[in-house]
Design brief:
By secondary structure, the protein is an alpha/beta fold. About 25% of the residues lie in helices and about 25% in strands. The longest helix is centred in the last third of the chain and has 15 residues. It binds coenzyme A.
């Protein structure tokens, strides 16, 4: 008697047995001179690449073409790339950096959103596509998994498609399926999908930048987070925001807490609401598990994600790009540093432009103000040789460093240079200032007073009696224009009570005295209404310390449309708090006899107020 033969477990590839092969056999179909497209990101087909690299009698003149790979090519103990092949890439990832130095790589600086078209037109040739996919479903469809990006275009042109079929590849939803009939050779693998874990960066500066970025992201924003670490760090500070959405070239694990916390509903998105729309996932197994067969995600080809029209139609589109350097006119370098090509342009250009055109959108560029070793300022008088202006100065809107946020769009060179110097590390400010003056960006009369880090903790939002709110914050020298405009809104009487004379206009030096202060013996605050794009200075206050008395001379001015709502009182309270912390004894002010508003303001301080009448003025002393 014979026992029952043990039946082999059926495999999803059984129906395609004639296509199933090994990596070594599959790559023998590649011919000399072929342009071989390699699947992107964490979905790079590593078994096929290894088989190709170790192929005896390697076909001649092969060129590998890829957007971006992660841990797909090996390096020796000295960090040299061991690749035997020539590469053409649109992104210099860590995989490619050594190979670039070894002269094995052609870097193509172009928007990745335009690559599919170029491939389809045959201007970027592709004869072979090596990809990694999920196992087929009952209809014979595999999923491109965690990377869709430019793969559909490569598949459309390739004479030969070889796919690693991996049960660990998540079956992503969206436009990410491919019928097995379009694949010529199937290579079963069961390796774990490459993970790209971003180490959280706890350094104070990075976290500050992340908080600043998060601070300007409103409820209902649609986010693009790109490849840079800072954008991913910013997401952790959005856990009190409502109805955020994702329309992004890349997603990472940083979205998971927002999803779990209910912040990421996508309800306000104009295009594909409620869906997380992306082209590539770079993350951990946790993220890949979340994506697997999850209709919440829609994976799309990069040209449909990075479509300018789609981006600009999104509700409050926020695009966050991390840069290497910016010059004082606002030219930004994102793909080259110290002469070396790093990363790539991706589709940052489309996202920044689209965000600028989207209703309520925000294009944000961020960077630490210095290189990691602190030795070089990333804010420079001019970009250096070996640095390209990837983002034109005409397209720059927000710039964020650990010293604050500048809004540069529509601003003059002088305003930009002034604002950017204040976002530089204080130790580099004098040099930047001198260079900016020498280059004619700043006037010879302009001076640099503020050499400290911007104290974001001193910012406060104040709710006024009539329900409006303003931001009270330390003044910056870039506030000069706004203060001049405030001055011109004051009535003649207000100008007289503020300056004790009839003044028709303020000279540069006079405006500077009201905002370009050193915060040692001079302090100035402004009250801002509106968003950063459309901000108006509606109030200004300052005090100047007399070291001989340890008292400070204080003054205020409030826009007529904002008077009698409690703004003066709020600014006075802010000034008193600030001066008390610094150990001052009190304030003095000379107030014209008829200035009932100011006299009332002083009396309302709930401190000891002494008034000494002169001929037509009252000398007020407020003791802390
Ligand atoms: C003085 C000034 C800064 C006050 O600002 P403000 O925003 O109006 O101040 P508040 O709204 O907090 O009002 C302060 C007090 O003045 C009173 N006040 C406001 N407008 C008034 C007016 N037209 N007449 C009489 N009292 C008035 C308010 O009622 C309030 O007192 P209360 O709290 O007892 O009611 C503002 O009027 C101004 O900029 N004036 C022109 C410049 C100037 O004179 N500066 C002072 C020289 S240092």
């Amino acid at each position: 008697m014979f026992g029952k033969a043990r039946s082999k477990k059926p495999s999803p590839l059984d129906a395609y047995a004639d296509k199933v092969t090994t990596p070594a056999l599959a790559v023998t179909h590649i011919r000399s001179g072929d342009h071989v497209f390699v699947g992107s990101g964490c979905a790079a087909p590593r078994a096929l690449l290894q088989a190709l690299e170790s192929m005896p009698g390697l076909p001649a003149d092969l060129e590998l073409l890829h957007f971006f790979t992660v841990k797909a090519f090996d390096h020796d103990a000295d960090g040299h790339s061991t690749t035997r092949l020539r590469h053409r890439t649109f992104f210099v990832s860590s995989d490619m950096r050594a190979a670039v130095k070894q002269g094995m790589v052609e870097y193509v600086p172009m928007s990745i959103a335009r690559v599919p078209d170029m491939i389809l037109l045959g201007r970027i040739p592709v004869e072979v596509a090596l990809i990694q996919v999920s196992v087929p479903d009952e209809f014979g469809y595999v999923s491109l998994g965690v990377s869709v990006d430019i793969i559909p275009a490569a598949l459309a042109r390739a004479r030969l498609v070889i796919a690693e079929v991996n049960p660990n590849m998540p079956r992503s939803m969206g436009d990410s399926t491919l019928h097995v009939s379009r694949i010529h050779h199937l290579v079963p693998v069961a390796t774990l999908i490459i993970e790209l874990q971003r180490m959280p960066r706890q350094d104070r500066d990075v976290q500050r930048i992340a908080r600043y970025i998060a601070g300007i992201i409103d409820d209902g924003s649609t986010l693009q987070i790109g490849m840079g670490q800072l954008a991913h760090e910013a997401l952790q500070y959005l856990t009190d925001r409502k109805d955020l959405g994702i329309h992004s070239d890349v997603v990472s694990d940083a979205i998971i807490p927002l999803l779990e916390n209910g912040n990421l509903t996508g309800a306000k998105k104009t295009r594909q609401p409620f869906k997380i729309v992306t082209s590539m996932a770079l993350g951990s197994r946790r993220l890949y598990r979340l994506i697997d067969r999850n209709p919440l995600f829609s994976f799309q080809p990069i040209d449909s994600i990075c479509n300018l029209l789609t981006i600009s139609k999104q509700h409050k589109m926020v695009s966050i790009a991390q840069a290497f350097a910016i010059d004082l006119t606002g030219q930004v370098c994102i793909d080259q540093f110290d002469g070396e090509f790093y990363s790539g342009i991706g589709c940052q250009g489309e996202f920044l432009l689209g965000a600028a055109q989207s209703p309520g959108g925000k294009p944000i560029i961020c960077m630490t103000s210095t290189t990691d070793d602190g030795l070089v300022s990333r804010i420079r008088p001019a970009l250096l040789e070996g640095e390209s202006a990837t983002i034109a100065r005409s397209d720059v809107h927000y710039l964020v460093t650990e010293y604050g946020i500048a809004y540069l769009f529509g601003k003059s060179i002088r305003q930009r240079a002034t604002a950017l110097i204040e976002l530089a590390h204080p130790k580099f400010r004098p040099e930047l200032f001198a260079k900016a003056q020498a280059m004619g960006y700043l006037s010879a009369e302009q001076s640099l007073h503020n050499l400290r880090a911007y104290p974001v903790e001193e910012e406060q939002t104040v709710l006024l009696k009539d329900g409006r709110s303003v931001l009270l914050r330390p003044a910056l020298s870039s506030d000069a224009q706004g203060i001049r405009e405030l001055f011109h809104h004051l009535s003649e009487a207000d100008v007289f009570t503020r300056f004790f004379r009839n003044v028709r206009g303020l000279s540069d030096a006079e405006v500077e005295r009201l905002c370009n202060v050193n915060y040692e013996n001079e302090v100035a605050f402004v009250a801002i209404s509106g968003s950063r794009e459309e901000s108006t200075i509606v109030g200004q206050s300052c005090y100047f310390i007399d070291p001989t008395t340890n008292m400070a001379d204080v003054a205020y001015m409030v826009h007529p449309q904002w008077q009698a709502c409690g703004l003066g009182s709020a600014m006075q309270a802010c000034m008193i708090r600030h001066a008390t912390r610094r150990g001052l004894r009190g304030f003095v002010a000379d107030v014209l006899l008829g200035n009932a508003k100011m006299l009332r303001l002083a009396r309302n301080s709930s401190l000891r107020v002494q008034a000494e009448k002169n001929q037509d003025a009252v000398h007020i002393t407020i003791l802390f």
